[in-house]
UniProtKB/TrEMBL annotation, chain A:
Its main location: other. This is acyl-CoA oxidase. One of its GO terms (molecular function) is fatty acid binding. Keywords: FAD, Fatty acid metabolism, Flavoprotein, Lipid metabolism, Oxidoreductase, Peroxisome. It comes from Ambrosia artemisiifolia (Common ragweed). Its EC number is 1.3.3.6. Signal peptide: none annotated. FAD binds at residues 92, 131.
TrEMBL record, chain B:
The active site is at 424 (proton acceptor). It is found in: Peroxisome. Belongs to the acyl-CoA oxidase family. Residues 480-655 form the Acyl-CoA oxidase C-terminal domain. Residues 17-132 form the Acyl-coenzyme A oxidase N-terminal domain. The lineage of its organism: Eukaryota, Viridiplantae, Streptophyta, Embryophyta, Tracheophyta. Its main location: other. Residues 278-439 form the Acyl-CoA oxidase C-alpha1 domain. This is Acyl-coenzyme A oxidase. GO terms for biological process: fatty acid beta-oxidation using acyl-CoA oxidase; lipid homeostasis; long-chain fatty acid metabolic process. Its cofactor is FAD. The keyword Cytoplasm does not apply. Coiled coil: none annotated.
Length: 617, 663
């Protein structure tokens, strides 16, 4: 039931229907086999097809759990968990994305009927993008401007029923539809991302999610003593998931490109022998192996984020908000750099497969198309880096009286980081975790301090921040890379069993760090921490490391344990039987149904017979 | 709401004359007129509508393209269009089709590699489209390495024929456009075998399909290789697979301009210089660079216009939010791409001149500039296509979430463009060819004066010594300072690579080991060429109010953006101090502010029609949101309120009756 090869050839309607079928089958398996929530989550992941259930389980239910009162949870959660209702998360609008405060949809309290009137006042206020909204969801969590007594009281979430539970038709006053095709053939076209408009739709007062803020039937606004910071806990959780997904997507692409690079041969034939495997070329290695290392790096930083989430949750439970700004900045930054690197990395893997990577059967075009929204959803990547930058600037300016914590603790040593320059003298000198961490810390600290100094020259800090934003983004990236590098190194300080496993991961850790160092050597040199000679030694060491990765390349990607079904790639087949299978797959294209193609007699034959003039086109 | 112009205020801010800039972009008043006329001819003809393309199934899609192609050929004939006009017509139809191969590969190959007799026979048939041809070189297992091809053409003296054969699965011809379903003929590249001896790879004209009923001829297996990246894009093309089972063709169907096989089976070389192929290569790569500038200009046009329409954050006192085009982060990603589009445009204009020069030299048997020309065009191809592919995707991201919609035009443009990075020479392979040339040039410096785009290397000893003298941000507005910086960096990187290569015992081993450093040195060299071409273009007379000034700003943006991006190179080679690099970056920010008021007018100068852009976000009138909403409702899923499949697969879940329902 979960076959996916034919997906790219389907029309849109067929494609959605097929996904609805798979989602139903998936749910049946979950119920029949009594799968746990954890198991069900993995089942959905391996079905590998965006569907309305992603939103139902990933956004709708958690939002009710997080933002609903006990009473609301008691009413709505059982309905949702049994799928008697299907919900989505309707926040973004046609004219409004990252800026939640800019939303236009209104929810106006009517004390006479004890109801909210949900309304779309303009075209740009139409809800736009929510997955599952277009055709499937019966309910939505709608974010709207709360208006009570003519006054605006912030943006809040409201549970709105969209469709009849009898015949699934849209309820009166509600216009709902699909927003059209998206990038890729299958990819997100299996999802009914939707548009939604309200014409004065009324809902009972108790359908506003009221855990934090309440509206009484008299129209009074009240804040409960639940800390508003609770929302940060959810944010850390969601971003942790995104980082974990980044490592999965990147590892898929790397697995395909690595296996095919070992199968594919080009140039270098000696005496008529076979050509050279492309994986033996240093140019191939220098593009592929850093991505392989990145997949592992993101995996480990994702694991650490899980720990961070638990930590934040415990602290919140004890009303300790001290680490929140740092946790927020750190997760925002990691979301941004891992998703950007993954999107770029998938496309790089496609190019590393040469011309055949352009075929949909390589799996890479679809993987790219399905992945890239991660760069814009849940916070646009550049907007997030600017949030990190604000935090960094603040941290630097407060250094005199506030000790930075967690991933910014190194800023506390800023004085020595500004002064001490790199001591590495040989290429081997770079195989030292201490040297590497210090290099990344110094670069990040110096860039942040430098930005702080330049900002101080502006009379208006906001103007300075806007003017220097591109530099601030670079400083944020430096800070975030430090986090990934140091979490990788910390991971390797733990006990890791198995023959050669730890040694292998050490090589990958060095590849990751030194690749970044080479790529951003401009930063390291401009801040004066490195000499050109030291940067060059790092690059020499990197080449040596590639040779150490080479014999392990295939087993490193086998370690991801991906099935051929999950990879969905002929080039990345476990058995390497690429060419016969590529040939076989070609024949399944609808154009190959007949020797003489549809349209030939009408539109080509008249040209060849020089009778175009008289033919009807 | 037709007739609105939400970008009017933006347009009125322009500090230069848009109409003259259009001519500067097009290259000449004549070129502008031809392009403008052909673009409008296509845009105003309903047959060439392309909005519905992504929703069509593969068969329907392909049939639709066949129809458009026939209609276009009819127009070419009815309107007596010149070859130049016909080329632009095909370009603006904006849909890969078998005629691309017919006119750009099959006919030129016949003309370039055929004897006079062969040309007399085949070219008229092709030019009247009585036969349709393609260019069958790549194989399932073989791409860039032509010498690795496996298909054989064995001479049979008895019948005076060649026997074309696919000996292995990996020898199947794979990728040629038009091959699967349309072409009647192909130029097949195969290993020439005479009496068991191999005589190199040559081209053979092979008929593939009956001219009566179009069925494949005996011994020939033909098919489509399946779906490619994107919805429409190259799925409108029948890229094909072909296998030959001992197919016989007459001896005179080997293209014999350079090498001949006599009926006795003697292999001979004519006195036509083998270097003739270089002229074609320069012409092909010139087209690729020109296409890069077009594709990138489309993407930046969409992203720039939408960035002026889209607003986000920064609302003061409930007023409108800030146009995203006003954010420095947006400008620092977008404006360098606008500048790159112009840079590539001028590079392609210059390549046209180079082509003429090469042709003239070849006629008088002057081959002295060929290695330099070869390296320079390979480098241009690699640099411009890689930057364009990345630039299109960057523009998509710059449009936020809506860039992910097909109706933004950017996903299709990206999927359509990316093959340029691999075809006609894979980009990294190209850079390594440049590297070989650089290494040779540097090592020959003592006894050979480098020419053309490598001439600066003649001053290498000076360039490795003298450091940058810039002291203020304003100093970076000096073309001489910029050029010297790029030359010094490139020369130092090339010399540095040579010094390290010398440490290896085997030069080949050293080249392999250091190949990624060599590729970086090549890129530095190619950037010198693009920057210096842009600067030289500005030394010419450019008419029109403010046109030259606006281009000067873009030229500086392009150069200083590269300098900042690659500051690691400039610092590592010791040419710049960190302070000087930082001044360049300061100047760059100032330059962005100078681009800002002209941004919309600059992309208007490309003169792209809304049809050609095919982007709701990039509409000329800026009427984005109503049109986006309108477009959404045309999706097939919106044919009915209740989607197909709801009753079967969703209702049973909601009604808790899944266990008893049949899936």
């Amino acid at each position: 039931a979960f076959e996916k090869f034919t997906r790219p050839m389907m029309g849109r309607k067929e494609l959605l229907k097929n996904t609805l079928r798979k989602a139903a089958h998936g749910w049946k398996l979950i119920v029949d086999h009594r799968l746990t929530e954890e198991e069900a989550k993995w089942l959905r992941l391996y079905i590998d097809e965006p569907a309305y259930t992603d939103l139902h389980w990933g956004m709708f239910i958690p939002a009710i759990e997080g933002q609903g009162t006990e009473e609301q949870k008691k009413k709505w959660l059982p309905l949702a968990q049994k799928m008697q209702i299907i919900g989505c998360y309707a926040q973004t609008e046609l004219g409004h994305g990252s800026n939640v405060q800019g939303l236009e949809t209104t929810a106006t309290f009517d004390p006479k009927t004890d109801e909210f009137v949900v309304h779309s006042p303009t075209l740009t206020s139409s809800k736009w993008w929510p997955g599952g909204l277009g055709k499937v969801s019966t309910h939505a969590l709608v974010y709207a401007r709360l208006i009570v007594g003519g006054e605006f009281h912030g943006v809040h979430g409201f549970i709105v029923q969209l469709r009849s539970l009898d015949d699934h038709s849209p309820l009166p006053g509600i216009t709902v539809g699909d927003i059209g095709m998206k990038f890729g053939n299958g990819a997100y076209n299996t999802m009914d991302n939707g548009v939604l408009r309200f014409d004065h739709v009324r809902i009972p007062r108790n359908q506003m999610l009221m855990r934090v803020t309440q509206v009484t039937k008299e129209g009074k606004i009240m804040q409960s003593n639940v800390p508003r910071q609770l929302i940060y806990g959810t944010m850390v959780y969601v971003r942790q998931t995104i980082v974990a997904d980044a490592s999965k997507a990147l590892s898929r692409a790397v697995c395909i490109a690595t296996r095919y690079s070992a199968v594919r041969r080009q140039f270098g034939s000696r005496d008529g022998g076979p050509e050279t495997q492309v994986i033996d070329y240093k140019t191939q290695q220098s593009r592929l192996f850093p991505l392989l290392a990145s997949a592992y790096a993101f995996r480990f930083v994702g694991e650490w984020l899980k720990w961070l989430y638990m930590d934040v949750k415990e602290r919140l439970a004890a009303n300790d908000f001290s680490t929140l700004p740092e946790a927020h900045a750190c997760t925002a930054g990691l979301k941004s750099i891992t998703t950007t690197a993954t999107a770029d990395g998938i496309e790089e893997c496609r190019k590393l497969c040469g011309g055949h990577g352009y075929l949909v059967s390589s799996g890479l075009p679809e993987l790219f198309a399905v992945y890239i929204p991660a760069c814009t959803y849940e916070g646009d990547n550049v907007v997030l880096l600017l949030q990190v930058a604000r935090f960094l600037v603040k941290t630097v300016s407060e250094l005199g009286y506030k000790k930075p914590v967690g991933t910014t603790a190194y800023m506390g040593r800023v004085a020595s980081l500004m002064q001490n320059n790199c001591a590495v003298q040989t290429a081997e000198g770079w195989l030292n975790p201490g040297a590497i961490v210090e290099a990344f810390e110094s670069r990040a600290a110096r860039m942040a301090v430098q930005c702080g100094k330049k900002l101080a020259k502006f009379e208006n800090p906001e103007e300075g921040f806007a003017e220097l934003s591109a530099d601030l983004v670079e400083a944020s990236i430096a800070h975030c890379q430090l986090i990934v590098v140091s979490k990788f190194i910390e991971k390797l300080k733990q006990d890791i069993p198995g023959k050669g496993v730890k040694q292998m991961l050490e090589v990958l850790c060095y590849v990751y760090a030194l690749f970044l160092l080479h790529k951003h050597q401009g930063d390291f040199l401009a801040t004066g921490y490195l000499t050109p000679e030291q940067a060059s030694l790092a690059n020499d060491q990197l080449r040596t490391l590639y040779s150490k990765v080479r014999p392990n390349a295939i087993t490193l990607v086998d370690s991801f344990n991906y099935t051929d079904h999950y990879l969905g790639s002929i080039l990345g087949r476990y058995d390497g039987n690429v060419y016969p299978k590529l040939y076989e797959a070609a024949w399944k294209d609808p154009l190959n149904d007949s020797d003489v193609v549809d349209g030939f007699h009408e539109f080509v034959q008249p040209i060849l017979k020089q009778k175009l003039r008289t033919s009807k086109l | 709401m037709e007739g609105v112009d939400y970008l009017r205020d933006e347009r009125s801010k322009a500090q230069f004359d848009v109409e003259t800039m259009k001519v500067a972009w097009a290259g000449s008043p004549e070129a502008f007129l031809v392009c403008d006329r052909m673009a409008k001819l296509v845009a105003n003809d309903p047959v060439f509508e392309k909005f519905s393309k992504p929703m069509l199934g593969r068969k329907e899609l392909f049939k639709n393209t066949l129809r458009k192609t026939a209609h276009a050929w009819k127009l070419v004939n009815d309107l007596h269009l010149t070859e130049e006009e016909a080329k632009w017509l095909r370009h603006y139809i904006d849909e890969p089709s078998y005629t691309d191969l017919q006119w750009e590969m099959f006919v030129p190959a016949l003309e370039g590699q055929g004897t006079e007799e062969q040309k007399k026979k085949w070219v008229p048939l092709a030019k009247t489209m009585q036969i349709i041809g393609t260019y069958a070189q790549t194989e399932l297992g073989h791409g860039s390495n032509v010498q690795g091809l496996e298909t054989t053409a064995t001479f049979d003296r008895q019948s005076d024929e060649f026997v074309i054969h696919s000996p292995t699965l990996t020898s199947s011809k794979w990728w040629p456009g038009g091959l699967a379903k349309v072409t009647t003929h192909a130029i097949v590249y195969a290993r020439l075998i005479i009496d068991g001896h191999f005589y190199g790879v040559h081209g053979f004209i092979v008929q593939l399909r009956s001219l009566e009923d179009h069925s494949p001829l005996p011994g020939i297996t033909l098919g489509d290789i399946g779906m490619k990246f994107g919805h429409g894009t190259y799925n409108t093309m029948d890229n094909g697979v072909a296998r030959f089972d001992r197919v016989r063709i007459p001896r005179d169907q080997m293209l014999m301009r350079v090498s001949q096989v006599t009926k006795e089976g003697k292999y001979m070389k004519s006195n036509v210089p083998r270097q003739l192929g270089y002229a074609t290569m320069v012409s092909v790569r010139q087209t690729i660079v020109s296409d890069a500038s077009k594709a990138l200009s489309r993407a930046v046009c969409i992203a720039t216009r939408y960035s002026a329409i889209r607003r986000q954050f920064g609302s003061r006192d409930g007023g409108p939010e800030t146009q995203v085009l006003d954010y420095k982060t947006q400008q620092s990603r977008l404006f360098p791409l606008v500048a790159s589009a112009f840079a590539f445009r001028f590079a392609s204009d210059w390549l046209k001149l180079l082509y003429t020069d090469v042709k003239q030299r070849l006629e008088v048997n002057d081959f002295s500039t060929l290695p330099e020309v070869h390296a320079c065009t390979a480098g241009f191809k690699s640099l411009t296509t890689a930057a364009t592919a990345e630039g299109i995707e960057e523009c998509r991201k710059l449009c936020g979430g809506h860039g992910y919609l097909i109706s933004s035009g950017l996903p299709e443009l990206f999927a359509f463009y990316v093959p340029a990075c691999t075809y006609e020479g894979e980009n990294v392979v190209m850079l390594l060819q440049v590297a070989r040339f650089l290494v040779k040039t540097v090592s020959d410096l003592g006894n050979k004066q480098p020419v053309g785009t490598a001439a600066y290397l003649g001053r290498a000893s000076l360039l490795v010594q003298k450091n940058c003298v810039v002291q203020t941000a304003e100093d970076w507005l000096n073309p001489i300072a910029i050029l010297e910086a790029f030359e010094a960096r490139a020369a130092r990187m090339a010399v540095g690579c040579c010094q390290r290569l010398a440490e290896f015992k085997s030069p080949e081993e050293g080249f392999a080991e250091l190949s990624s450093d060599l590729a970086e040195a090549s890129l530095a060299h190619c950037q010198v060429i693009v920057v210096s071409t842009f600067i030289r273009r500005l030394q010419q007379d450019i008419p029109g109010r403010g046109v030259k000034q606006a281009l000067e700003v873009l030229c500086n943006v392009y150069a200083l953006f590269l300098l900042h991006k690659h500051q690691g190179d400039f610092l590592a080679t010791g040419y710049l101090t960190p302070k000087q690099a930082s001044l360049a970056n300061d100047q760059l920010r100032t330059l962005y502010s100078k681009v800002r008021p002209n941004a919309i007018a600059l992309v208007d100068s490309f003169n792209h029609t809304d049809h050609y852009l095919s982007s709701v976000l990039g509409r000329y009138d800026g009427n984005v949101y109503p049109k986006l909403y309108e477009a959404a409702l045309k999706d097939p899923l919106n044919d009915s309120d209740i989607a197909d499949g709801i009753h079967q697969y969703v209702q049973p879940i909601l009604k808790q009756k899944l266990h008893s329902s049949k899936l």
